[in-house]
Amino acid sequence: MRTHLTMELLKEVLMLMFRALAFSLLCFLPISAAALDTSAGKLTVTPMVTGLNAPWGFGFLPDGAILITERDGVLKRVQDGRVTEVAGVGPVWAEGQGGFLDILIPRDFARSRTVFFTLSQPQSRQAGTAVARAQLSGDGTQLTDWQIIYEMDPGSRGGRHFGSRLVEARDGTLFLTVGDRGDRPSAQDLSVENGSVLRITRDGQIPDDNPFMRNIRAQPEIWSYGHRNPQGAALDLDGNLWVVEHGARGGDEVNRVKRGANYGWPVISYGTHYSGFKIGEGTEKDGMEQPAYYWDPSMAPSGMMIYSGALWPQWRGSIFVGSLKHDYISRLSGSPLKQEQLQSEETLRVRDVREGPGGAIWFLSVGDGVLYRITP
Predict the structure, then answer these.
(1) Closest by CA position to 136, among listed 52, 75, 93
(2) What is the C-alpha separation between 39 and 330, in angstroms, rounded?
(3) 243-277 pLDDT, tens per residue?
(4) Could you tell me if 374 and 347 are in contact, meaning their C-beta atoms sit under 8 angstroms apart?
(5) Among this protein's residues, is 161 annotated catalytic?
(6) Given 161, 246, 273, 326, which residue is catalytic?
(7) Residue 222: strand, helix, or coil
(8) pTM of this prediction?
(9) Are 201 and 168 in contact (CB under 8 A)?
(10) Contact of 179 with 195, CB cutoff 8 Å
(11) Tens of pLDDT along 110-131?
(12) Alpha-carbon distance 363 to 86, whole Å?
């Protein structure tokens, strides 16, 4: 009897090991590469991680590992052909468009082991955009010291327009995008954070040189306002911040963000309401910024990267933006900006785009739950 039980237990252990191995191989398969026709020639698109569930953001660690957020509150780590779940993620309000969203691995990670995240933070029966900070253990399996360092003031309702991209400025401060939370007029109201780009320190404090620091009627963390729902943000090669944001029916915008500037939503827009009615006062107004580029009809932008030119020098400085609606990656370049669409069967609802080590372009496809890499 004891021998029989021992054999059964051994079979069960072997089966579990086989399933774990199969899962790892399924989730990290740099095979079945596809071709992508571009202005830089025919490129190769390779699936690197499969089987992801509503992925939202990703980042590269110095040791070659990749961290990927999934909207329902899961953090995945990919290294050496294995995909594992990282423990220690705090509470997340995963409803509607909310959940576990962006990730930022700062420049000093090798020394600090610090990782920053954005999420929709539970606030009583509501939720708001928040920034969390945590330490990644040496073996990469555990987050410790999870702490919410910033959250927008409670009061917004509904499950949409959280914004949530996070960018480290050259001076080490953090830029955070926040959507209007579905409350259009609030994007013009400096007393709330809705519809704005915020600037905070790594501890969640307010830098002394923020533009509205001494305006008693304004939230001091606001850097710019009049945004609808910025779901992409990146620094250009000179260190300037750019964002890409959803319009309504048309009017998705790319904006170079200026200190204290008003980007117009919902007073001006190049789109219309979903009902077809006009938005605000038209397409321009004194004191409100014009977009550097806009799409009409909408392409539903998410994720943004400005390319270094490492592998493709002719693309140096180009802006790459994922489309959640029309299944392509937009490459914008020139003055004024002009678009090239990078499109294949793999560019399904592109949620995030980033430049990887060595200059390869990586992107997250929500449509099939895959992290892809583009190479020559």
Answers:
(1) 75
(2) 12
(3) 999 999 999 999 999 999 999 999 999 999 888 88
(4) no
(5) yes
(6) 161
(7) strand
(8) 0.91
(9) no
(10) yes
(11) 999 999 999 999 888 789 999 9
(12) 21
